[in-house]
């Protein structure tokens, strides 16, 4: 590819005018040294992020009225002469000179001495808020919600551009590849951080699909982590209905937000681990449960089968006994039926013979009664005939007697008339008796005929 002369000359001019990083840092160092009289000897501020090394102690000095910070170092030779211990959260006055670290391009205070003024206003406010939260029981373990063992969707509140996002994702998906991660972007430091964090936390808590909320950010100076000590953020975390995990900074960082969370983690990576089950552990546990289930199943099934076999054997024996009993009952029923048939035949025959005998006797009695009735009727007719003759004779005798003595017995005429009337009544009665006797004889003969025909 051809390059014209004008392009070559432009590149040469830029090469000559551009400084290297080393040259720039050296120039900054020289400028600061030449202007050292412009900087104060004493600086007041609040200590944070103190880290002691064998060769010296590093800490951050924050403006007591703002968010501005500067890095400080106390070399071990000076640190051993300082009577007071460097304590985070204290307001201090340091005697130092401005130093520029050329290798790192970092401006810092080279501290020669150190005096504690007392706890800063912000530290005092922090401790007052800590005491209030403690009194409300927000740090109590019995107030913590348990984390679900197998979450399907984890809501992560963090900066969408920070490394914490990737750390949580890598750790969570490394343990549970199938879990869903839903990110709620928020500003995690500075003036806008508290309202941004509160909004993201509430949005995650209102999402019904979120099982766990992870609030996290990477490490940093205490002043950059201070948003997680702000009361609105802490209250938002404490009020969550969804279980929460808070991981802010590194191992040495500690915030109130972590204290009120249901579970705290040291780093974003650990937050991803805490919020998810280890698939390998779950698989091992599932395998163990399967083995236990198999063993239990085998034991139960074997025991049940043995018990079932015994029950089947007992049932077979019972059925066989029942069959034998049934056969015996059938045999007894057959015997009984035969006995009943025999008894029935015998009884029927005896009853028929007895009935025949009784019928014959009855017929004889009826015949005898008929004969007796006939004789009685004949006798009755004879008596009736005799009675008629006697009545006629008596009548004639009486008529004659009354005729002869009529005149003499006028006074007794009525008696004679009554006697005559009695005679006539006797005749009528005799006639009626004859008729009754004939009717009785007819009825008797008819009854005998009907009875005989019914028996036959």
Key descriptive features of the protein:
Rossmann fold, 10 strands, 11 helices, 456 residues, alpha/beta, exodeoxyribonuclease VII activity, OB fold (Dihydrolipoamide Acetyltransferase, E2P), hydrolase
Bulk shape: rod-shaped
Which oligomeric state applies?
A: single chain
Residue windows where pLDDT falls under 50 for at least 5 positions: none
DSSP summary: helix tally = 11
Summarize the helices and strands and which ones pair or pack:
Layout: H1 5-17, H2 21-34, E1 42-52, E2 56-62, E3 69-75, H3 76-79, E4 90-101, E5 106-119, H4 121-135, E6 153-158, H5 163-175, E7 180-185, H6 193-206, E8 212-217, H7 231-238, E9 244-248, H8 256-260, E10 263-265, H9 268-275, H10 279-404, H11 413-455
Parallel strand pairs: 3-5, 6-7, 6-8, 8-9, 9-10
Antiparallel strand pairs: 1-2, 1-4, 2-3, 4-5
Care to describe what's here?
58% of the residues lie in helices and 17% in strands. A 5-stranded mixed barrel has the order 1-2-3-5-4. Strands 7-6-8-9-10 form a 5-stranded parallel sheet, with helices on both faces. By secondary structure, the chain is α/β, with parallel strands linked by helices. The protein folds into 3 domains: 103 residues, Beta Barrel (OB fold (Dihydrolipoamide Acetyltransferase, E2P)), CATH 2.40.50; 153 residues, Hypothetical protein af1403, domain 2 (Rossmann fold, 3-Layer(aba) Sandwich), CATH 3.40.50.10550; 170 residues. The termini are far apart. The chain is rod-shaped, with a radius of gyration of 69 Å. Strand 1 and strand 2 form a beta hairpin. The model has no long low-confidence stretch (mean pLDDT 80). The chain is built from 11 helices and 10 strands. It holds the Pfam family tRNA_anti_2. One of its GO terms (molecular function) is nucleic acid binding. InterPro entries: Exonuc_VII_L, Exonuc_VII_lsu_C, OB-fold_nuc-bd_dom. This is Exodeoxyribonuclease VII large subunit. Keywords: Cytoplasm, Exonuclease, Hydrolase, Membrane, Nuclease, Transmembrane, Transmembrane helix.
